[in-house]
Design goal:
alpha+beta, Alpha-Beta Plaits, four-stranded antiparallel beta sheet, 3 helices, 4 strands
């Protein structure tokens, strides 16, 4: 039986007044995510910064986190070190991240 890779999309939606430190996110937070969840099945993580348009309202950032399979996602979120990842969010943003799971059919 072949296992299917599971992808999590973590999105940050805000407006011109939202705080989001891209440099911290890229150089520190994403490194922490790889360090913590790499041990439990995270294969890669990529960050995107879509254009929000002239209104400044919309998706500010998206992280695509590719895990080996759903079991790896579950192991990652069950890890005691996940608390470090979640606590670090406040260091770079005041936006509550939204997490969506995707897996191939």
């Amino acid at each position: 039986m072949t296992t299917k890779q599971t992808i999590l999309y973590v999105t940050y939606t805000g407006d011109a007044g939202s705080r989001f430190d891209r440099d911290y996110y890229l150089t520190k937070h994403m490194k922490l995510v790889q360090e913590v969840w790499g041990a439990t099945g995270l294969e890669s993580g990529t960050a995107f910064f879509p254009a929000t348009g002239s209104s400044g309202v919309g998706t500010i950032a998206i992280a695509e986190l590719k895990f080996r399979d759903q079991a790896a996602v579950e192991a990652s979120f069950a890890s005691p070190d996940t608390a470090r990842v979640m606590a670090d969010v406040k260091a770079y943003t005041d936006i509550t991240p939204q997490i969506v799971r995707a897996s191939p059919l």
